[in-house]
Here is the input.
Amino acid sequence: MKDDQNASNSSSTIDGDEKGFPTVTGTCPFMCPEGERAQRERLRDLAVFERLDGNPGKTSSALAVKKKQKVHEVMFQLSCELPAKLDSMLRFVTECGKSLVLPITISSKQVQASDVRPLAVLEDTLKYLFNLLDSTKHPFEVVHEFIFDRTRSIRQDLSMQNIIGDKAVHLYERMLLDSVSKCSIVQPWWDSYDGDGCSDGNGKNEDWERESGEHDSRRTEVIFHVVSDHKLRICTGSPNISPMHQLNMEQLTKSLISLYNLYEANPNSHSFYKNEAEFRSFYVLLHLSSQSQPTGESLSLWLRDVPHSIIKSKEMCFARRVLRYFRAGNYKRFLCTIEAEASCLQYCILQPYISEVRAFAVSCVNYGGYKIHPYPLPDLSKLLLMKEVDVESFCSDCGLETTTDEVGKKFLPMKQTSFCHPKSVFQNYYLLDSQRLER
Amino acid sequence: MAYLSMGEAHRRITEYLNRFHDAVSYQDGAALKRLLSVSSDSPHLLSLADALNLVQDASRAIRQTDKYAQYADIIFPLFRSLQNYRIKNLADSYQAFEKSANAFIQEFRNWESAWALEALYVVAYEIRVLAERADRELASVGKTPEKLKAAGSFLMKVFGVLAGKGPKRVGALYVTCQLFKVYFKLGTVHLCRSVIRSIETARIFEFEEFPIRDKVTYMYYTGRLEVFNENFPAADHKLSYALTHCNPRSEANIRMILKYLIPVKLSIGILPQESLLGKYKLLEYSNVVLALKRGDLRLLRHALEEHEDRFLRSGVYLVLEKLELQVYQRLVKKIYIIQKQKDPNKAHQVKLEVIVKALKWLEMDMDVDEVECIMSILIFKNLVKGYFAHKSKVVVLSKQDPFPKLNGKPVNS
Here is the structure.
């Protein structure tokens, strides 16, 4: 379902636009509306980052950040559905695979302008949140969960307002770039990012600046999710990671979809959005496997609506080639192509598939190989683009034994019957043995 | 437009009202449906619309007479819809029609038998078609097209009305098909799931009871959904059903079914005749079929590139891409056959270098490692029986049935 924000409407009234969906101009000057802050102090519902001197019942305007509202996000996306059509709404809610939630409708009475943060405050909030990513006081999962929830709340506030207005947000973009560049994993990508953005050189800077505000917060959000996902996978141990990972993937996909709607809202401005092709390619990469569809929607369907210029872009062509190799099982080309061409973020997204494909490669080799000739591990390491020392442990993760001959060379015997897929995707995280992608 | 007098205009309106009243009183579904088909451009309705636009306020005529007043809620907005339609205000026409349709549904609920089902079909059809046209109009003036989405919600409501135990339930499939068309047009195809579930699992529905025309349409759309999700056996079953039960004279419909059935059949190893492709103008598949027959990977890639936009739009691109493995199988089989002719005793041993050469001849650049990779996949997926010897860079084929046929099953993933 598409997010129905209409970027070309410039009016923002509390009473709502013609569709009956309330558009609000937020006036809340704090990261968290006062009412909510007071209530959560009373209920002692404060995250660790929000506590003043560690006091679970005290916070301040500098620490409290608005929480994601309990209203089901699907409600926002059904922007043309009036509350009266409850029946259809409930049906739509279940269709998203979410459990049925008692519909809490957002009527214009309930949405107070003073509870909604305007763009400037949202920018500051996002900046504050990203600064927390560096925090070493708390485990990454805790940081992630907090930021995860609070960025969703930013998205809610964005949805409720008409953000694209007259405000120049050139400064906003720079600021976001700074924040995100603190994520060391994405450093190489941001170093090459052109902060001035406008790519077609015809000087229409104002147009681009006008659009870029909301657009870039979305983009930053997406980056956050990709990076978090990556980091989450590195963290081992906590059994809570897995559902978080799932949620993160969902949010990542949702942010991507919102971002695509923003791109589509200005069909004449494709040339301004330098990074659109890469962000579109993420969608393909997230849907490589027909089993794990984050949105439950087939890739064939999505590809129908992608503009021709994007289909032909370098990034999309890369993603589609990777898709082709993945689906054919062509592990050689799959791994080589990624090693040679993937961008940092694309690589982050592809990591779990790389593990899957390597396991598949090992199982194919083991299945079809000649019984009498065990496969030399150096050759296997070249095939899997894995350091030789890692190949051994990887084989053992797959339930396979390796042997050593008299002169110390290592082999994988063929036709072993004990093959199994490596248990946890989150452990034993083997990087692609690659000069280009070295971290 | 010929001169229309007030008198004549009033006469037309009254005549319509009478017809409406009679149709309902005599439970004449066929007559009623003709009075509701706004977009049909029937001379009768067009002339009525002209009359309405002249008179401007037909409500007095309706309210004055009791026998018409009871249908006021249906007829007022219907008149408005017609008027707007006539002067090409399609968005307003849709809006008014929806209001009328709403009132119609309320009445329909109260009518006991299913006499008005045909009229209901027309209402459902009009809702969709008027919404589509309204959205085109809205888009052309830069506004957000939102009527088709509303039409979808409305049709769900209609579905709900029909989903009961009585004789009206046979209409549910027609409405379902209208919903499919709406969702496919909007791209919100996942919304089909809930209606499909209702049709297929609710005990009140007996699939065989539905009219054949609706069953064909239903199977066509659900078959297409299976294609999107790459469930080939299910897609084959549904699309084949649609094909066999489709009116043989309806070439356009057959073509639509074949457009999706052919990629499915290819995926399970069944190739169409060139004559079939020609008869139904589906020649975009010609080279794909040829590539499969020849084991010519270059031709397959070329065919996909040539018709990329078309295949992407119909959603079959990824399905066709997956045929690659079958093309490789065919190529290796050809090499095997050639070797067998030269020296039957050694034919089952195929050097990887030979395959590399064959691919080079097809202008495909692959090294020995990648060929070994492909061979190991073919073996793993049972497209080739045998094993590969890494050290000697040779594939050793099984002496018996080294290239198993798919036998109606897709290549296992």
Notes: The two ends of chain A are 38 Å apart (CA to CA).
